[in-house]
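Handout, section B. The chain below has 373 residues.
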Amino acid sequence: MSKKVLILANTTFTISNFRVELIESLIKKRLDVYVICPNDDVKNENILKKTGAKVISIKVNRNGLNPFSDLLYFYSLCRFVHRIKPDFIFNYTIKPLLYGSISSLVVKKKIKVMSNITGVGYVFSGTSLKQKILRVFIIPLLRYALKHNDVVFFQNKNDFQLYNDCKLIENGKKIEILNGSGVNLNKFSPRSDAYPTLTFIFVGRFMKDKGVFNFIEAAKFLKKKYNSSISFMMFGKVDSNPESLSQVQIDDLMKDNVFDRICSIDEIHTVLKKNSIVVLPSYREGTPRSVLEGMACGLPIITTDAPGCRETVITNYNGFLIPINNTTELIISCEKFIEDETLKNTFGVNSRILAEEKFDVELVNNRILKYVE
């Protein structure tokens, strides 16, 4: 009888875009794979089903703090865990980590629980009164949930250190620090037919902590100075978070002719291959997937010297690291590429080399798969 793997996530997009290769590898090992995620994206749900995974829809309020909503989610998880009786549970993002880890206790059999910390999230990323209050409640819950994990994966050393400093990780707990979620080097590969204009591209959610407003300010300044000799594009989605760029602001930017394109796109690899430089001035990441995809496509990187971001760049080798929330330094780094276009090719080749050496999705997944025996 095949062993069963249950994967939990708070969005369908997360699993279908970042974990498909892992699911395919698990199925090749003749494991039955179940995915529990919200029914929030039919297209991505179909992508998961095509892998052979069994997809179960459970509603989860990923940003909300409603205890009744969370209790309903926890109850639903417990019901399906009891029904499926998995041998392994993989948790992605904080709510699945909290409730998925604890739900493993409803079954008498031993379930091997593993959680992937893909970033520290809103609760740990600021010093506002609300965030401090949330930490008071979340930290004990996290500590209890992680106590019931067999392996905890982190995407950078800083996130592990933060969890360790908060005494969330027990002594002796098995820890793996991965190079992000990895990138498919076949799907994301260099191509020669790039746009003739030097193009700076931002890929990610249009959030303040992703550095989107720093990118916009830099684009306005540089576009005014260099006009049509350079181009700027943004690909992502407006978020429900109040710190997100609004649709009205996007419309205004397009009217001002600062950006050539601002939109969401499914096949991002087709766009990356045509662009010049990936810019992600994020304040903190696990390991940014958009940067890894850009590296695999042979593009130079401008990102911040922030946890998760700094791991992707060797300064003056494949790009530049800038201070967090520093538009001036972002402009200076962009101008280095404008003033010396040979950097684009040299750094781009080096990005691909670094992607092959460190961030190949097969290398990353093999470190996870060794625990599924």
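Note. The longest strand covers residues 32-37. Compare this with the example in section A.
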